[in-house]
Amino acid sequence: MLARILSTAFVLLPLVTAQTPINIPAPVEGDPATQPANDPTYACPATCVPPACVCASTKIPGGLSVEQTPMFVTLTADDAIQDPTYEPFSQVLNSTVNPNGCNLPFTYFVSTAWTNFWLITRAYNLGHEIGAHTINHPDLTTVSATVRDQEIQGSAQAVMTYGGIPKSDLAGFRHPFLAFNKDSFDSVAKAGFKYDSSVTLDPLTQPYWPHTLDYGFAYYPQPCIKCPSGPSMQYKGMWEIPMYNLLTNDSKLWSSMDPIINPQLNDYDVALSNIKATFQVHYKTKLPFGLYQHLAQLVAWGPEVEVKKVQLLKDFVAWTQKEFKDVWYVTNQQLISWIQKPVPADQMRTFLPCRPPAVDKANKEICDGIDNDGDGIIDNGVVETCQVTEEVSFQSCYGCPTLVPNITQPVPPQKGNATRKPAPDAACPNAGTWDPIAGACITLTRPQVKIPDSNASGSKPSGTNGDQSKGSGTVAGAKVAKTSVFGATLLLVAVLSA
Ligand SMILES: *[C@@H]1O[C@H](CO)[C@@H](O)[C@H](O)[C@H]1NC(C)=O
Ligand SMILES: *[C@@H]1O[C@H](CO)[C@@H](O)[C@H](O)[C@H]1NC(C)=O
Ligand SMILES: *[C@@H]1O[C@H](CO)[C@@H](O)[C@H](O)[C@H]1NC(C)=O
Ligand SMILES: *[C@@H]1O[C@H](CO)[C@@H](O)[C@H](O)[C@H]1NC(C)=O
Ligand SMILES: *[C@@H]1O[C@H](CO)[C@@H](O)[C@H](O)[C@H]1NC(C)=O
């Protein structure tokens, strides 16, 4: 019955409760008696040099001064990517722009069950980063070795196959519940991921920049389950992008994910004050800052709370762009690229030029999640709706599978005559776009980017991006469901499955 209510939409959110941050270990106030924050045996030799090898360090990469260093912010999201949560989060990202004129990017760690794969394609072609987060969102420290590998590798395959992510751009993995141990790290490394991002650090006592794991961790990797200390967790060339804990405005550990954990407390002011205070702690040393969200948390408590949470995030990003001139919102992969080859803030626009979405009347519509021809409808007539079973339905540019992807069969064959061509392993060269129907890289016309005046405070979305977002209300001939419609349903799910 519940499944039937939900299946009337493209969106199915039974994972909402399974993914609430209740299961995320609370930050542990530095307790040196049990776990020293930092590992005195860490030794990283002088032969470890970028770009291949980067030691764990609290110093700014490249020997830049604090003043020269850009202030990086990462916004990450976890779990199934679905319309009712993607839309409100996009409002936050679209509400302001980076100094290069582009909308803010996110890094989305997608768990494949209940995902709308078309949103992966849409996000990727808007310049967001897609990472993997298993298929069914299990605690990887409690499953068998076989299931662990299947969950990790299968999620990468499904994201590439039905979301159209080129293998070369699928780099990151985040552990469900942030639950990891040596075995799960071994599996992530074996699957070939370029980085993991699951370790939480206290920015006051463990202000480490992202680094490679060639020589392991320089700190005790919270919240590792029985991790061996010392140098036994080493992975050549694989990165760890730490998740920094948020602090209260008087410098106590507050939250590792999802600011405003209990919306019923109506603690908007406290949350904004804490997030700003934590950002300022990072800004003093330019240690990258991050906000790590479960997007289901935006909508799980109903429309009123959703509006407040979205406003909180909008207010925070507007404040950073207004008050600080050198703030750059980046994806995790962009952050890695910068650490490998650091440039001062005044060269960032060359380092990270804006590549606006391909929207122009001269284009034909191809299935890439973008309104290429600018007619106000994204992927008009080319995106397919896959009713895989009675309960599971999603959209995709990459053909519909005959079965629901699962751990033993993450990429079942395409229905029909398999007319959609998978994305190539390497992203299209020269800013080309993969056309899954033609099976070729296509060059599309992209609009000019308006570079915001660096001296102007409170940057606004450029004209280009404004046009782009106009198309977002309509999807392939059918209106995108309004989030508020789902608010009540989501709450219902939360209550029923609690
Ligand atoms: C810190 O937050 C509290 C609420 O939690 C607020 O009353 C106080 O004014 C804040 N202090 C600063 C310096 O922002
Ligand atoms: C995955 O799906 C296939 C085909 O429906 C099924 O045979 C297999 O048992 C499923 N695997 C699991 C672990 O459910
Ligand atoms: C598959 O191809 C055959 C021959 O080209 C055609 O007759 C058939 O209609 C196609 N089926 C689908 C589902 O497109
Ligand atoms: C910004 O302000 C500085 C100093 O006030 C000035 O030298 C510079 O030309 C301005 N830049 C722009 C793009 O207006
Ligand atoms: C703004 O967000 C919407 C999703 O609601 C998206 O479709 C649109 O393309 C976004 N615009 C840009 C420029 O990112």
TrEMBL record:
<feature type="domain" description="NodB homology">
    <location>
        <begin position="72"/>
        <end position="195"/>
    </location>
</feature>
<feature type="compositionally biased region" description="Polar residues">
    <location>
        <begin position="454"/>
        <end position="472"/>
    </location>
</feature>
<dbReference type="InterPro" id="IPR052740">
    <property type="entry name" value="CE4"/>
</dbReference>
<dbReference type="GO" id="GO:0005975">
    <property type="term" value="P:carbohydrate metabolic process"/>
</dbReference>
<dbReference type="GO" id="GO:0016810">
    <property type="term" value="F:hydrolase activity, acting on carbon-nitrogen (but not peptide) bonds"/>
</dbReference>
<protein>
    <recommendedName>
        <fullName>NodB homology domain-containing protein</fullName>
    </recommendedName>
</protein>
<dbReference type="InterPro" id="IPR011330">
    <property type="entry name" value="Glyco_hydro/deAcase_b/a-brl"/>
</dbReference>
<dbReference type="Pfam" id="PF01522">
    <property type="entry name" value="Polysacc_deac_1"/>
</dbReference>
<feature type="signal peptide">
    <location>
        <begin position="1"/>
        <end position="18"/>
    </location>
</feature>
<keyword id="KW-0732">Signal</keyword>
<feature type="region of interest" description="Disordered">
    <location>
        <begin position="451"/>
        <end position="474"/>
    </location>
</feature>
<dbReference type="InterPro" id="IPR002509">
    <property type="entry name" value="NODB_dom"/>
</dbReference>
